[in-house]
Design a protein that fits this description.
387 residues; Rossmann fold; binds fe (ii) ion; 3 domains; four-stranded parallel β-sheet; alpha/beta; 12% strand; single chain; binds the ligand C=CC1=C(C)c2cc3[nH]c(cc4nc(cc5[nH]c(cc1n2)c(C)c5CCC(=O)O)C(CCC(=O)O)=C4C)c(C)c3C=C; 15 helices; 50% helix
Length: 387
C-alpha cells in the first residue's frame, strides 16, 4: 500500500462576522442547496438572499461568540482520528475539505496531490446522506476529478453514509444515557430528536434518502439506548418559502407542552459537531420557546465532537473501507434527477468579484423589473417573454 489519506468532508462555517455574507453566498450559489431550473438565476439569487439574510445571521453568530466553531472541532476530530489510526497500526494522513468555507475542498485536494497520496478514503462527517450535504460534496469532487488527470491516478473509495454503524449508535446512546443520568426524574424525560430539515421536494421528487436514514437512525439509537423514555422526531432550521420535512421542531415543542410534557431533552442527530444550530437555535431559541410553552425542564445532549467511541468507529470505518470494494462518485452522487455541478465562484471578505458587482446589478435589475411589472401590469417581463 502506498501513501494513504483520508478526506473528511464537512460544511464549513464563517470564522468571523465578516465571513458571514460571503459564506452565505457560497452556500446559496450551490445548485444542490437551491435547485433552480435556470443556471443563470443561481448567482444573482444567491447574492440577493445572502445580502438580505446576513445581518440576521450575523446576530446569531454574534450570540455564540462571533463565529462558527466548526473548523476547530473538525480539525480536532482529524487529529484524534489520525492518532487512533496510528494506534491501530495505520499511518494515514488526514485532510479536511469544507464545502462553503475554509479549508475549502479544493484546498484539501491541493495538499493531497502535494503529498502524493495514492490511496484515499473519502468520509463525510454527516451520518446520514442528503443530496444537499454529502451529495453536494460528492458531486463537486466528481467534477474536480473529471478535470484533473493527477487526481484520476488516486485510488479512492467513498463512504456514502454510516448512520447505522454499531459504534456510532453506541456513542450516541452513551451521550444520551449520561445526560439522562444527570437528571433526577430521568424516566419522565421526553427525548426530542431534532434533525436538520430539507425541503420536502428533495425527498418526494429528487429521491433523497435523507428522511428514511434519519428515521431509521432514530429508531436504532432508541434500541441501543434501551430505556423506556418516550421520544419524538422533528426537523429544524427551515429556510425559505417552500414546505420542508415535518413536523417542524418549532411546532412540535409547543405541541408536546400542550400534551402535558414538562421535561424535554433535545438530541441533535444530523450533525456530529457543535455548530450554530445546536449552540444558538436549540440552546437559545428553542429553549426560550419551550419555556414559554410551559416546559419546566429543558436539556440538550451534547454533540459527539471527539467522543472516543465515535472516533474509534471512524477509524474502523476507514480501515474497513481500505480493505473493501471501491465505491465511486457516480454510484453515490445520487441520481435520478441529476443536477450538473458547474464551477462556483468563491466570494471572500474584502474581495471585489463578479459576485459583488455583477450579480448585485442583475439582482437589482430583476427587482426593478418585477416592481415595474407589478405597478403597470404589463412591463419589462412581458416584453422579454417571461410572463
Ligand atoms: C445534515 C445537516 C444539514 C442539512 C441537511 C442541511 C441542509 C440545508 N441547509 C440550508 C441552509 C443553511 N444552512 C446553514 C448552516 C448550516 N447547515 C448545516 C447542516 C445542514 N444543512 C450546518 C451544520 C450549518 C452551520 C454551520 C456553522 O456555521 O456552524 C445556513 C447558515 C446559517 C444561518 O443563516 O442560519 C443556511 C442558510 C438549506 C437551504 C438546506 C437544504 C436544502
Ligand atoms: Fe444547513
Ligand atoms: Fe438556524
Amino acid at each position: 500500500m502506498g501513501r494513504v489519506g483520508v478526506l473528511l468532508l464537512n460544511l464549513g462555517g464563517p470564522e468571523q462576522l465578516e465571513d458571514v455574507r460571503p459564506f452565505l453566498y457560497n452556500l446559496f450559489s450551490d445548485p444542490e442547496i437551491i435547485r433552480l431550473p435556470f443556471r443563470w438565476l443561481q448567482n444573482p439569487l444567491a447574492w440577493l438572499i445572502s445580502t438580505l439574510r446576513f445581518t440576521k445571521s450575523q446576530e446569531n453568530y454574534k450570540a455564540i461568540g462571533g463565529g462558527s466553531p466548526l473548523r476547530r472541532i473538525t480539525e480536532e476530530q482529524a487529529v484524534a482520528l489520525e492518532e487512533k489510526l496510528k494506534e491501530k497500526g495505520h499511518d494515514v494522513q488526514i485532510y479536511v475539505g469544507m464545502r462553503y468555507w475554509h479549508p475549502f475542498t479544493e484546498e484539501a485536494l491541493v495538499r493531497i496531490k502535494r503529498d502524493q497520496i495514492e490511496q484515499l478514503v473519502i468520509l463525510p462527517l454527516y451520518p446520514q446522506f442528503s443530496i444537499s450535504t454529502s451529495g453536494s460534496s460528492f458531486r463537486l469532487l466528481e467534477r474536480l476529478w473529471s478535470e484533473d488527470p493527477v487526481l484520476q491516478k488516486i485510488n479512492y473509495t467513498v463512504i456514502p453514509s454510516w448512520y447505522d454503524r454499531p459504534g456510532y449508535l453506541r456513542a450516541m446512546s452513551q451521550l444520551i444515557a449520561e445526560e439522562l443520568d444527570h437528571c433526577e426524574n430521568s424516566e419522565q424525560i421526553h427525548l426530542f430528536f431534532s434533525a436538520h430539515g430539507v425541503p420536502l421536494n428533495y425527498v418526494e421528487e429528487a429521491g433523497d434518502p435523507y428522511q428514511k436514514e434519519i428515521e431509521t437512525c432514530t429508531q436504532l439509537i432508541m434500541e441501543t439506548l434501551n430505556r423506556p423514555n418516550p421520544h419524538t422526531l422533528a426537523y429544524q432550521s427551515r429556510v425559505g418559502p417552500v414546505e420542508w420535512l415535518k413536523p417542524y421542531t418549532e411546532e412540535a415543542i409547543p405541541q408536546l407542552a400542550t400534551e402535558g410534557v414538562e421535561n424535554l431533552m433535545v438530541v441533535p442527530i444530523s450533525f456530529v459537531s457543535e455548530h450554530i444550530e445546536t449552540l444558538e437555535e436549540i440552546d437559545m431559541e428553542y429553549r426560550h420557546l419551550a419555556e414559554e410553552s410551559g416546559i419546566k425542564n429543558f436539556y440538550r445532549v451534547p454533540a459527539l465532537n471527539t467522543h472516543p467511541v465515535f472516533i474509534e468507529d471512524l477509524a474502523d470505518m476507514v480501515i474497513e473501507a481500505l480493505d473493501g470494494p471501491q465505491v465511486k462518485f457516480a454510484e453515490v452522487a445520487h441520481p435520478p434527477k441529476k443536477t450538473k455541478m458547474y464551477p462556483q465562484e468563491r466570494w471572500e471578505w474584502g474581495m471585489t468579484t463578479t459576485a459583488e458587482v455583477w450579480n448585485g446589478r442583475l439582482a437589482m435589475i430583476g427587482i426593478v423589473a418585477v416592481l415595474v411589472e407589478l405597478i403597470i401590469g404589463h412591463g419589462p417581463l412581458h416584453f422579454v417573454g417571461l410572463l
